[in-house]
Specification:
Blueprint: E1 7-9, E2 12-14, E3 21-25, H1 33-46, E4 50-54, H2 58-70, E5 75-79, H3 86-89, E6 95-98, H4 112-125, E7 129-135, H5 151-167, E8 173-178, H6 182-195, E9 202-203, H7 213-227, E10 233-234, H8 246-261, E11 275-279, H9 291-301, E12 310-315, H10 321-325, E13 330-334, E14 338-343, E15 346-352, H11 356-371
Parallel strand pairs: 3-4, 3-10, 4-5, 5-6, 6-7, 7-8, 9-10, 11-12, 12-13
Antiparallel strand pairs: 1-2, 13-14, 14-15
Helix pairs in contact: 1-2, 5-6, 6-7, 7-8
């Protein structure tokens, strides 16, 4: 069931049954021009057909202009809360990703349709492809309902924005519908592919987490889809340091090969611990370089709870931190000098990196006592 539509992204194309394009993302500050350019080149050499950079400020956009001069890699950027940055970055990239849920964080008086049309016209002018990047952790508030979880609103958002881009006469786009839950990713992408087989799909988990579990989760979600011809490009979003980002490409290559050969991981083949640690991929938005180490420390500290039904989310920045941790029993999201510790949606406090693990364990202990 490969998508019928073929779209160009820089020197590459996706869709129409073409080979699956592998992606990764730089995990150094975009304003560190030399390091960012070197990372883009290294990832391209490792097999990334597209490398993503984080651009949140005018300074990031100016740095991107210089990075473009120093790398031949196909480049993509995210537009997070600031959709107006599209005109600053479009001349220097091959694809722009916008998140429908983030369009509501600023200039709330402006309808999302006006914001999206602005992005589309800028993309047209500068020969850019677009990705409609729906994330179950940051959905459009207007689509969220008390019942039904996030799967239905996520699908609705993807369909809504696809139809709107079509109405503008813009068809050079792909869609991603991501979650940190493998079952949700598989189900909602199947549904979208059945309804819109013409639209190329970007596959991935929002926060696959630390390897090797992060690779296994990604296999569980993506191999069944690819085996059925669903998916045109993918990223395995691992929590690893910048010098290990090529592991995302290696994992993606493994997933594509397994799907092609029929070596598909199923729930019966992988007995996942009841303990579920979710951690976001390292990227330029991480506010403190200790984030990856912290995620590893959390994993080590909670091994005694591996048979408990407990979800812990470790997030690296303010973009994913507040929303993504809302869905976990215990959440840690990292600031520059401290870590915000949450119990569900409630903020327990902000703690230094050196002390937050012990505070987390105390919090888990209190939850255990309350449940006894």
């Amino acid at each position: 069931m490969s998508s019928k539509r073929i779209i160009s992204i820089g020197t590459r194309k996706i869709g129409g049954g073409l080979p699956v394009l592998l992606q990764s993302m730089a995990a150094v500050k975009t304003t560190n021009v030399q390091a960012a350019a070197e990372t883009c080149e290294r990832l391209a050499d490792a097999g990334a057909g597209l490398v993503r950079l984080a651009v949140d400020t005018a300074e990031d956009a100016q740095a991107l202009k210089e990075i473009r001069k120093r790398t031949t890699a196909n480049l993509s950027v995210d537009l997070q809360e600031n959709y107006r940055l599209a005109e600053n970055v479009a001349p220097f990239v091959d694809k722009i990703r916008y998140n429908p849920g983030h369009l509501h964080h600023s200039e709330t008086e402006i309808p999302w349709q006006i914001k999206v049309e602005r992005i589309v016209r800028i993309a047209e002018k500068h020969n850019c492809a677009l990705r409609i990047g729906v994330n179950c952790g940051s959905l459009d508030p207007a689509l969220l309902t008390a019942a039904g979880g996030t799967e239905v609103p996520a699908l609705s958002s993807a369909l809504q924005h696809s139809e709107f881009l079509d109405s503008l006469g813009f068809v050079r786009y792909c869609v991603s519908i991501k979650s940190s839950a493998p079952k949700t990713v598989t189900a909602v992408n199947r549904q979208f592919a059945a309804l819109r087989p013409d639209v190329p799909l970007h596959l991935g988990l929002t926060e696959a987490g630390l390897p090797p579990a992060g690779v296994m989760k990604s296999r569980l979600a993506l191999e069944p889809l690819l085996a059925d011809g669903i998916g045109d490009t993918l990223r395995v979003s691992l929590t690893v340091a910048n010098d290990r980002k090529s592991e995302e490409i290696e994992a993606g290559r493994l997933i594509v090969q397994n799907a092609a050969s029929g070596s598909i991981l199923t729930e019966a083949d992988w007995c996942e611990d009841k303990l579920n640690i979710i951690s976001c991929p390292s990227c330029a938005r991480v506010e403190n370089g200790q984030f990856v180490q912290l995620a590893q420390q959390v994993r080590e500290a909670v091994q005694k709870y591996k048979d408990k039904r407990l979800t812990i989310a470790v997030m690296g920045c303010r973009v994913n931190g507040p929303g993504e941790t809302d869905h976990a029993d215990i959440g840690l999201w990292c600031g520059k000098a401290s870590v915000n510790l949450k119990c569900g949606k409630e903020l327990v406090g902000s703690f230094e990196y050196g002390s937050v693990i012990s505070e987390m364990l105390r919090l888990i202990g209190r939850l255990e006592e309350a449940a006894a």
